[in-house]
Fold this sequence. Notes:
four-stranded mixed sheet; 4 strands; 59% helix; mainly alpha; globular
Amino acid sequence: AIGLSIATLVIMLGGRRLHRLFPGVAFAVLAGLAYSRIDDGILTVGDTNPIPEGFPSLSLDLPWSSFGSLFIGGLIIALIGFAEPASIARLFAKEDRTTWDANRELAASGLANMTAAVSGTFPVGGSFSRSSVNRLAGARTRWSGGVTGLVVLGFLSFASVLDGLPQAVLGAIVIGAVLGLIQPVALVGLWRGSPVEAGLAWFTFAATLALTPAVQWAVLAGVALTGLVHLARPLRVEARTDPDVGQGTGETVAEPVGLIWVGSYRTLERQLMELAGATTGDLALDLGSDPDLDPGVEVITERLSTILAADGRSIRIIGADRGLSPSAIERD
Length: 332
């Protein structure tokens, strides 16, 4: 099993050196299936849970009588289902220097889960492993999701072929795909940029390790603590005129003080809009306390930039890396 795992990682990651579109995952799967035909003692996917074939049946016969007992569990699943794609979207957005829309992600997850409800599937959510495998294969646009969906539909009648896939190969594929998402340097670097954010991140990280496999409670604890910090230190925007930063052009520098997260986006946007209306020159948003540009903040600055451009003004960002938006978040 260890040998299969190492070989899978070599094929996946080594193939990328040959060409970025090298189908390493496909080669690893085919090699694993071939090996399982030779060695029937290796543990395979089908040994623990055979893969069903055929299109799932559709039904509106939902357990309405159990709604009360299922509501809290469903709420937690929905929260976790959004936290994962939100995290990977931020990461891919940073790498691609684009933005992502949380509202569109929520709408996509909601529609997918409405479909899941009538087809009897597991809850649907963005997947770290599948998105990473998708990206590792060279996907860059939403077409990758459409092609993947069509291939899965066409493969349903032959899905049991994957029963023979060694679990060691499947595990190595997942590990190889998410290796790039492990960024201990960035986690440590949070202390230099924002001790408050670092504390929240490390608390959630420690809670996840302590509560595994019930990671949902760790995520809920992290969200709850973030909410408390937000209430204790409400976000505000302080304005100043700095000749050294504004190059003497009458530029107003806006510096957010407090925690920037999804719960404070609206406050940040409102205060920036008010500041823009109260000034006549250009604006600069000073994010020197943050190591990365939050994708939500970039969306806000893009909206404000459009408004200011109508008056011949502009807004720029100081002290943070440019951010991003993924075009291919795969779901499982």
